[in-house]
C-alpha cells in the first residue's frame, strides 16, 4: 500500500489534538466538545489511537466489512497474543501500510507473506477498525466472568423476529469501515489470517451506502426503501449528548469499559418487492416523513421539528400514532438516543427470485438495556413497517475504550 506523508497525517483536522509517542496519534477532541480529526479526502488515513475507538463517531464511510469470530483456542495467553498482534496490524493498515512488517512481498519467498496483497497500491481510504467483545467471551474459558458488564446482558426476544443463530452472536466482532470496499475486506481478511487457529469466522456481512450520518458535515443517507434514514441521529458534534448517551462513564460498570460503548447489530431483511408495490402515500404514512425531502409530515424541510400534536382537518394526527418516526422518537423512551452507523446490503437473491436485501443496523450506546431494548420493543410491537421487514440476525458487543499509544492493545484493560 502507499506510504503516508507524515505531515498530512498529523494535519488531518484543525481541531485535532495530536501527540507523537512511539508513532501514536492521540486525540481527546470528543470529550472536549470539538470535532475530532477528519481525513482531508476519502483516500487519506484517520488516527488509530485516541481516547475512544475510531469507527464510532468517525464520519461514516461508505463501505463496511463486519465479521464476528468465535474463539477456538482454550489458552488465555494465546488469545492475548492474538489481540496484541491484531492491534499492531490494525494500526498499520489504518495508516495505509501492509498488515505485517515484511508486507506482501518483502519477506522470505519460501514463506507465506505477512500481508495478503490485495490492497497493494491502494491508499488508506479512511479505514477504521473497531473491536467489540460479545457476552459469550465471558464464560469460564478465560477467567473473565467476573468482568462481564451488566449492560452486556443478552437481548430479550422481540416480537416477530426470526433470528438465525448461525449469523448471530459471537465472541469477538470487528467492524472495518472504509471508502474503498477492497480496503475494508483486506483489513478483515488479514485479521482472520493472523487469528488462524485461535479464532474462526462465525459470520460476516458486507455493507454499502451508509444509512446514517454521524457528522453534520454529512448529508442524510437513504435506505433501500428510498427514505432518508437517521435524520436525528447523534452526531460527533453533540459533545454533551455523546457524554450522556454514548460513552460508558466511570461507575457505570466494570472499570475496563470506561470510555467505551456498547454495539448492537441487527440484520434486517426487507420485503423489497412488496414495499415497491405500496403506494407513496402509505409509505410516507408508515415512516411519518415525506420521501423526497425527508421532512416530517406537515412540514417542509428535513430538520424541521416534529409536531406530534398537529391534526388533519378531520381530526386525525398528521403523523400517525403508529408512525415509525413517532415510535422511535426519544420522547417515547425517556430521552433514549442511539448513535446509528448502519449500511445497506444486498446478498444476491433467494430461490424465489426475490432480492435478499435490507439494512445491516449498527447502533452504539451507553447502555442497551436503557436505550436499544425499549426502543426496539416498542417498534416490534406497534410499527406497521414490520409488515415489510424481518430481523434475521442479532449481535451485542462491548467495545472497549480507545488505545493510548503503540504500547497499548485491544483488551489490555479487560485482561489486566
UniProtKB/TrEMBL annotation:
Residues in the signal sequence: 1-26
Pfam families: Dyp_perox_C (PF20628), Dyp_perox_N (PF04261)
Cofactors that this protein relies on: heme b
Residues in Dyp-type peroxidase C-terminal domain copies: 220-402
Cofactor binding, per record: Binds 1 heme b (iron(II)-protoporphyrin IX) group non-covalently per subunit.
Reactions catalysed: heme b + 2 H(+) = protoporphyrin IX + Fe(2+)
Record EC number: 1.11.1.-
Subcellular localization(s) per the UniProt record: Cell envelope
NCBIfam families: Dyp_perox_fam, tat_substr_1
Name this protein carries in UniProt: Deferrochelatase
